[in-house]
Structures are given as structure tokens and as C-alpha cells.
Design a protein that fits this description.
Length: 235
């Protein structure tokens, strides 16, 4: 007796990307049947609710909402759907996905990675419900403010708003996305420990950078980002 195939929806705003994923599934994973395609977040939400697929291959970068918001939107319908995020390399996003125990595929998707993903889907019993995973994902993405000591007491800053941190003796300057600077009475080592696991990297002895905003570092030219911000290439 043949097993009924698992149903799937492919979500990507690029026609070529949808076609490539569909061909990979059709040619190499016969136990998966693609039942619908979506090119936008709103279209994806409607199709997922209508079809209740067992798997959704969900691109993170969509024009109207991102893939995380799609998952949040469908969560109220209590669907038993496995979400597989499909993304170009983005360390911050992947850390959040791993933290929340979702599966993911990196673009360009390879046959071996796709097969391994489906093997995990078939062989792993999901201990957490989709809602529990979504809650963990959202908590990780919407990090709470951290407390930093300064000369008068403490200030509270969202980690995502910190672009980079630069050591100033026993103090550290925090440079924020809004262009402001805050001097805190903590060493760079202390700040590094506080930001551990939140998408930051130490690129020199005196500097920690938020990887979300960084695409390239020229170590030979770095003197002080305070004065040479052009050494960073922003996303």
C-alpha cells in the first residue's frame, strides 16, 4: 500500500526560486507533493490556512512581510505544519531559527540538504508545538533590553539597536543605530560576555560589531570606527 504523500507549499517572491525548489522536490523527493505556490506573505498566509499543508518551504525575505511574520500570523489557527525557512546566509536569522528548533535550508538549496531536511521531518517527532516554537522564535527576535552601568546608574538598551562597541580604557562606548553614543562603565570583555549569543563578533582587541549590519571588515585599515566608519559595509 502506497503512503499518501506529504503536502507542501512553496513561498518565495521570485518565480525562478519557486521553480527551482519545485523541481528539486518533484525530481528528488517523491514523498512530497507541492499543492500551492505563494509569491507574497499575504498570499502565503491565505494558502497555508486554506490547504493546511504538512510542510511549508518559506523564504524569509518577502516584499510585504518577512517569513517570521508569516509564521506568527498563521499561529492563531493552531496548524500542525512544519515550517522550513529558506534563506540566503544570514547569521542572525539562522541563530533565531536554531534557537526555536525550526528547520532551514540555505540558498541555493542543494539536493542533499533538501533530502536531509525531509529525512529529519519524517523521522523526528516534534516535541514542541508550532505555537511553542513560534513563541521561542519571537522572544529571540524581540530581545529584551539589557542593562548597562554608567556613571549615574544604569541605562537600558535593546541589543538590536547597538551597531558596535569600542573600548575606552576601563569604559566602553556603545554606538547605536540612531547615531547616539553612550559611554558605560564596563570593560569591553564584560560587554562581550553580556552580548554573547546575540549576533555580535569581536573584530579587534578594542571593538565588537553587530553582525547584522556588517558585510566586510578590512583589518588592515581599522583604527577606530569612531573616526573610520567607512571601514564597514552596511547591509
Amino acid at each position: 500500500m502506497l503512503m499518501k504523500p506529504f503536502t507542501a507549499i512553496i513561498v518565495d517572491d521570485e518565480q525562478e526560486a519557486r521553480d527551482i525548489m519545485a523541481n528539486l522536490v518533484n525530481d528528488h523527493v517523491p514523498e512530497i507533493q507541492v499543492v500551492a505556490f505563494a509569491a507574497s506573505a499575504e498570499q502565503a498566509i491565505n494558502l497555508i490556512i486554506a490547504h493546511e499543508p504538512e510542510i511549508v518551504f518559506l523564504d524569509i525575505d518577502l516584499p510585504d512581510k518577512n517569513g517570521f511574520e508569516v509564521v506568527k500570523s498563521i499561529s492563531i489557527n493552531h496548524l500542525n505544519t512544519a515550517i522550513v525557512f529558506v534563506t540566503a546566509f544570514n547569521q542572525f536569522a539562522i541563530e533565531a531559527i536554531k534557537f526555536a528548533a525550526f528547520d532551514y535550508l540555505l540558498k541555493p538549496v542543494s539536493i542533499n540538504d533538501l533530502k536531509a531536511c525531509i529525512t529529519r521531518f519524517k523521522g523526528t517527532k516534534r516535541i514542541e508545538t508550532l505555537q511553542q516554537s513560534i513563541n521561542k522564535l519571537m522572544n529571540h527576535l524581540n530581545q529584551e533590553k539589557l542593562s548597562f552601568k554608567n556613571r549615574t546608574g544604569s541605562i537600558y538598551i535593546e541589543p538590536d539597536s547597538i551597531v558596535y562597541c569600542e573600548a575606552e580604557g576601563n569604559y566602553t562606548d556603545l554606538f547605536l543605530l540612531d547615531g547616539s553614543r553612550h559611554t558605560v562603565s564596563q570593560s569591553l570583555g564584560s560587554i562581550e560576555s553580556l552580548l554573547d549569543g546575540r549576533g555580535f563578533s569581536k573584530i579587534s582587541r578594542s571593538m565588537i560589531v553587530n553582525r547584522r549590519f556588517l558585510t566586510k571588515v578590512n583589518r588592515k585599515e581599522i583604527v577606530s570606527l569612531k573616526h573610520t566608519i567607512q571601514n564597514l559595509s552596511w547591509i
